Amino acid sequence: MKSSFRRALLSAAVVVVMLSMCVPMEAKSNRTKVQVISWWDFTSSEPLKQLKAKFEELNPDLELEYLQIGSGYADKMLVMIAGGADLPDVMMLAMDKIPVYASKGAIMNLDKYIQKDYKDEMKQLFPVVADAVTYNGSFYAMPRDVTSKVMFFNTKLFKEAGVAIPDEDWTWADFEAIARKMTRDIDGDGKPDQWGFYFRKYMDGFTHWLMQNGGGLCTKEGKSLIGKPETIEALKFLQKLAVDGVMPTETQARQFGNAQTAPFIAGRVAMVEGGLSTTVDLKNAGVDYVIRPLPKGKQRVTTAFVNAWAIPSGAKRPDLSWRVLKFFASKEAQEIALMSGMGLPARKDTNVSAFVKIRPDHKYLIESLSFSKPFPSPVYGVDFFKMVEQEFDLMWLGQKSVEDAVKAVEKQAADILSGKF
């Protein structure tokens, strides 16, 4: 197995092809253009449009020009940077990619800009955010927004079943009882076709359950936590729900669509986890829902996944790039991110009153930031996560025990997390 960076270096010959895949937003002025690349479709992204408008209002000498790379964004950007291509000024980057980019010198160290121009404002970032955008004690990115998980309840299904939606202090035991009550055989074939709960079997779909039980996935430093007794206990709890048919299999869930919210929107799943962007999906689909915190385990914890902005190493105008990053991390930009559904704010001083006024249960999204812990992001984490997902596939289907799945992971974990593969 090779790391993402190594794969990218081996593919450097395709830099020209990848550059042709970057589609720019048409320029509308003669101001200095600053290019910002992401995996989002900027032609339909309301948050990106609003950020562009506000930035250009505050910076009349500059114009944001958006570029997009769709599938394989992270690896393709590594190819472009390693190949010495003409680079955009700013790039979007997920927190789990920051360590590998930083360790390979693919993004700029921002400490000199922070010290000169942002030192006081750093105090406004939530600690979990500051942790996410640093590597070895230095800053390499600025926050785009935060995703912290809450639970969404399908109001229609709960009303039909006559089951009460729990209060904010519900526990794992409450969750299991409700999930089982909401699992039903609709067509009478003896098998569930309405399920109590669903989560996509990606790492960020269940890591918070492990942490709530005192376990975890791995540390930021690259030590596996999969073998901890607390982790195993939490995995057994989730596996039993899956094996008992309280959750749909991935095949069953995807018959309603590829999005995690698809079976919930289709009225076939009663509870689903999600962040702020989930509210946008449900609103667009016309689904009535209620929000609560995740059920409390041995401790109240949820993970925070931070998306960010960085400056590619080799970008020719880093001072202009910094002006964009500083704006994206500003109070004004974070309020745009919140109100447009992009994500939760990275700053403590963001005005959230209008957001909570829209719906009272929005408060649970905001409150989740206070007990969020960073999603683990070691240098070789992406490769570790892929391996864990593969080894856990049969476990979720009940075709492999939790103990056997964990042993298979632990056999490979140390080498993968240290880059020895």
Describe the structure.
This protein has two domains: 4-146 and 306-372, Periplasmic binding protein-like II (D-Maltodextrin-Binding Protein, domain 2, 3-Layer(aba) Sandwich), CATH 3.40.190.10; 150-303 and 377-417, Periplasmic binding protein-like II (D-Maltodextrin-Binding Protein, domain 2), CATH 3.40.190. Helices cover 43% and strands 14% of the residues. The chain has 20 helices and twelve strands. It has helices at residues 4-10, 15-20, 46-58, 73-82, 98-103, 111-117, 127-132, 155-161, 172-181, 203-212, 229-243, 250-254, 262-265, 276-285, 318-328, 331-339, 353-358, 363-368, 381-396, 402-417; strands spanning 32-38, 62-68, 90-94, 134-135, 138-139, 142-148, 150-154, 195-198, 269-274, 289-292, 302-310, 372-374. The strands form three sheets. Strands 1, 2, 3, 6, 11 and 12 form a six-stranded mixed beta sheet that branches. It has a four-stranded mixed beta sheet with strand order 8-9-7-10. Helix 1 packs across helix 4 (73-82), helix 3 (46-58) packs antiparallel against helix 16 (331-339) and helix 19 (381-396) packs antiparallel against helix 20 (402-417). The chain is globular and about 65 Å long. The model is unreliable at 1-21 (pLDDT under 50).
List the helices and strands and how they pair.
Layout: H1 4-10, H2 15-20, E1 32-38, H3 46-58, E2 62-68, H4 73-82, E3 90-94, H5 98-103, H6 111-117, H7 127-132, E4 134-135, E5 138-139, E6 142-148, E7 150-154, H8 155-161, H9 172-181, E8 195-198, H10 203-212, H11 229-243, H12 250-254, H13 262-265, E9 269-274, H14 276-285, E10 289-292, E11 302-310, H15 318-328, H16 331-339, H17 353-358, H18 363-368, E12 372-374, H19 381-396, H20 402-417
Parallel strand pairs: 1-2, 1-3, 8-9, 11-12
Antiparallel strand pairs: 3-11, 4-5, 6-11, 7-9, 7-10
